[in-house]
Amino acid sequence: MPLIVYDPRLKSELRGRVLQETALNLDIPATILDLAAIPVPAKYQGASLTPLLAGAPPKNWRTDFYVEHHANPAQIATWFGVRDSRYTYANYYQNGAELLYDRERDPTELTNVATDPAYAATLAQLRQRGLDYKTQYTRPGAPPASDAAPAGTKKKTKPTAGKS
Predict the structure, then answer these.
(1) pLDDT value, residue 149
(2) Is the confidence at residue 155, as pLDDT, over 70?
(3) Is residue 43 domain-shared with residue 68, that is, in the same domain?
């Protein structure tokens, strides 16, 4: 989804540009804090867009980003994932399922390649990247990163009759 920013203070040569860097909704609060000269907390994933607006994108601009869902696990399974320029990875650790989509070959993300041996290295790399992000960014009270397991490694438990 495109992000359109209008800043009347920008020089005319910096207006009307289309940038390829990935911007997240999390970058908007970080940008506001930066513009107000307030430091962005270290445990916040968002990054200020002000260098991009000024025409000087940082060399270390993100190449991927972390996503997670922990709210209302009774209705929607808890999960975390990583999206980079080519792949989308999701780990539904509540039920032990993993998804991996190769958007270069499957732009509509209809074919899960997580069990395809040709993608084993990519799957392992994105799983680890997701676990690293989960440790870095997950809010207090969310399930720990150790709860995340590769597909097929979590024991399925059945409810015991008469117990709740």
Answers:
(1) 55
(2) no
(3) no
**What confidence score (pLDDT) does residue 58 get?**
83
Q: What is the pTM of this model?
A: 0.73
Q: 113 and 127 in contact (C-beta within 8 Å)?
A: no
Same domain, 72 and 139: yes
9 and 78 housed in the same domain: no
Same domain flag for 47 and 98: no
Domain assignment of residue 101, given as a range: 64-147
Residues 143 and 82 reside in one and the same domain: yes
State the Cα–Cα distance between residues 76 and 68, nearest whole angstrom: 12
**Residue 83 domain-assigned (yes or no):** yes
pLDDT, residue 147, reads 57
Residues 39 and 102 in one domain: no
Each residue of 62-107: pLDDT tens digit?
Answer: 889 998 887 776 788 889 999 999 999 999 988 889 999 999 999 9
